[in-house]
Amino acid sequence: MLLPDYDFMSDSTEETSTRFVTFISPGLKRFDLAVTTTNRFYGKKLVTDLQAGRTAIIGSDDLEEEGYLEHVFKLTEEEAEELNQFLQLVVGTVNFTD
Fold first, then answer.
1. Angle subtended at Cα 39 by Cα 15 and Cα 7, rounded to the nearest 5 degrees
2. pTM to 2 decimals?
3. What are the two backbone dihedrals, phi and then psi, of residue 85, each rounded to the nearest 5 degrees?
């Protein structure tokens, strides 16, 4: 079946690595995450909250942005800080290359 009149900007397949992690934060919030490492997104990770079905592309620079995790994952400030502490260990540095 052909797709009529679709203008593809990109269409590629690559091998990725996904870490599935479930933990209870000190504030007793349960997180079920899938953290995908890919060659895309300048070294940032694709982080999915499996309970809420929300996904964000996250690098260390995003973790420094005030209110970012609260916004993308719909968390309280305390929950976002606890998630930030975990993601600091996972995300690493961003590589800006072409």
1. 85
2. 0.83
3. -60, -40
State how far the alpha carbon of 62 is from the alpha carbons of 20, 25, 84, 94, in Å: 21, 20, 10, 10
**Span 51-67, pLDDT tens digits:** 999 999 999 999 999 99
Residues 73-79: contacts with CB within 8 Å, 24+ apart? 73/49, 75/29, 78/27, 79/25, 79/27, 79/29
How far is Cα 88 from Cα 7, in angstroms, rounded to an integer?
A: 38
Structural domain boundaries in the chain: 17-89
Q: Considering all CA atoms of the chain, what is the largest pairwise distance in Å, rounded to the nearest integer?
A: 51
